[in-house]
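RESIDUES AND SHAPES:
===
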Amino acid sequence: MILTNRLFERKAPSRNAKSIYIFCEGLRREYDYFKYFKEKDSRINIEVHKLLSTDDNSPQGLFEIAKLSFEKSDDDEAKFTLVDGDEVWIVIDTDPDKGNSRIEQISQIRDNCSVKANWFITESNPCFEVWLYYHMFNNLELIENIPDVCNNWKSLVNTSINGGFDSRKHPIYIQNATVNSEIAHENNGYKLEKGQTEVYKLGKSILSILEEKINSIKNKI
């Protein structure tokens, strides 16, 4: 059944509501996915930075974009203002670049985030479609023989889900994805094997605000 915005009732903002600022590499897929939650409840402000085609979407470039979004320049106010409890998330993947520089960049960003209050990095191996897969499936055997190439993962998601993953309705299964992908990660620390993702950490943060409403909606379907 198609889920529509009519199933959601917006509530007045809470004084204690946190804001979640999400910076992701993709030009469309990641942005559309997280925008789904941004549109669903005014108690939480999920700001998703949509990269332009001219932006540097390398891990380090993405981190710099995030950092500059909260810094005031001589001429302009900061784009966003952080208050206590707000969170900043950098969403990246391990798909290697030609210079194989991503591993070093990701390691540096982890170090940079570790010294900033409520700054987090979340990674998928090899790409964001791994996270989307776990919304519908927990079958690890199905993915064991998938080559470690993003295009193969995109094809898997598009063919395994009837009609492909639809960011207008399928994010409602974020609870499934959070549980399934955390189990698959097996508490390996920062190490991500093929078919694993850390986005469940961000999923838990989103659910800390929206879980009751999501459960209510699913009960109506």
